[in-house]
Write a structure and sequence with these properties.
- Pfam families: ABC_tran.
- This is Amino acid/amide ABC transporter ATP-binding protein 2, HAAT family.
- This protein is α/β, with parallel strands linked by helices.
- It has a single domain, classed as Rossmann fold (3-Layer(aba) Sandwich), CATH 3.40.50.300.
- Helices cover 27% and strands 25% of the residues.
- The longest helix is centred in the middle third of the chain and has 14 residues.
- The protein is globular, with a radius of gyration of 17 Å.
- Bound molecules: adenosine-5'-triphosphate.
- Adenosine-5'-triphosphate (ATP) binds next to helix 1.
């Protein structure tokens, strides 16, 4: 549903962070953007969500040119961002976060998620409904960040480093939830620093290095040249144990 072509984006006009990035995300699966700190993952996701305006290239949504769109335009098209750093509202409770967030009117809807659906997805939040965001653990805050984004009934969820700083067991739980979202009708684009966790989660991987995007590579490493495969350390141990829903929407 969302694609970018030859995209150049930066914060200063003469110093682009992303160079000629081309990426096609279909309406299924989990797409991972893998890159080291500072590679430009957030820059790419923020451009998709309308927070940054490219200096060159195109953004297409359902085949329409939406280059330079603003966040409300992206939200109306069904793009929801679960941002790095979570950006929860400290004075609001968990229940408040889930009830004040609603899909914008006059927009393209994905699956509707009511509060009980979200508590089924994240049972740990059920006991925390009256707690304020700042009283939650890091893992609970991340669950709430994803749950809040799902309340927008997205057609595509952008998740920026959702497992950053979390204990391995909590990170694994969140990865499982994200990997299952396409089965609930929500494709995902997730930015992650490590290829191993991305390979366990995603149906296709792209790698950002030096502002250039490589890939797609499927979860078996197909599509990677030898140098990139070595870089990713996509060994058999890194492969998912489930059968991945590899898609061919390009
Ligand atoms: N608001 C900004 N103003 C100027 N430069 C920025 C800004 N935000 C990010 N950058 C620069 O853009 C580059 C890419 O940053 P970005 O946050 O997109 O990377 P990232 O891959 O998400 O990194 P991380 O994993 O550390 O979050 C970095 O060199 C960063 O310093």
């Amino acid at each position: 549903m969302l694609s970018v072509s030859d995209l150049t984006v930066g914060y200063q006009h003469d110093a682009p962070v992303l160079h000629g990035v081309t990426l096609d995300m279909g309406s299924q699966g989990v797409h991972a953007i893998v890159g080291a700190n500072g590679a430009g993952k957030t820059t790419l996701l923020h451009t998709l969500a309308g927070h940054l305006r490219p200096t060159a290239g195109w953004v297409l949504c359902d085949g329409h040119d939406v280059t330079g769109w603003r966040p409300p335009d992206a939200a109306r098209a069904g793009i929801a961002l679960a941002p790095q750093g979570r950006r929860l509202w400290p004075s609001l409770t968990v229940r408040d976060h889930l009830t004040v967030t609603r899909p914008p009117r006059h927009r393209a809807h994905g699956r509707a998620w009511n509060v009980s659906d979200l508590l089924d997805l994240f049972p740990a939040l059920a006991a925390r409904l009256r707690h304020h965001a700042h009283q939650l653990s890091g893992g609970e805050q991340q669950m709430l960040t994803i749950a809040r984004a799902l309340r927008l009934a997205p057609r595509l969820l952008l998740a920026d480093e959702p497992t950053e700083g979390l204990a391995p067991a909590i990170a694994a739980h969140l990865q499982t939830v994200l990997a299952d979202l396409p089965r609930h009708g929500v494709p995902v684009c997730v930015a992650l620093p490590h290829a191993r966790s991305a390979a366990a989660l995603a149906s296709s991987l792209h790698v950002l290095t030096g502002g250039h995007l490589n890939g797609p590579i499927d979860s078996h490493g197909t599509g990677a040249d030898d140098a990139l495969r070595h870089h990713l350390a996509l060994t058999s141990a890194a492969r998912p144990t489930r059968t991945p829903p590899v898609e061919h929407n390009r």
